[in-house]
Amino acid sequence: MVRTTIYLPEELHSGLKHLAVEMHCPMAELLRKAVEETYEHELGDLRAAQKAWKSHLKSPDKAVPVRGYFAKRVKRA
Length: 77
What we know:
77 residues, mainly alpha
């Protein structure tokens, strides 16, 4: 895990602090969940792209030209 610093308006910080007490969890956990849920799709896309890139680097000769890739995608739609 990586430690980071963020600045929150006092009102938001206070509200999150109270919510964390009510939910019996650390405020950091609330923030992690909020970020994960907010950017769920984008993070999934990024992970898929990273996985595809690693696969490509292992076998670049199997790469598909972009025009052929998009032609196949249009046919599926």
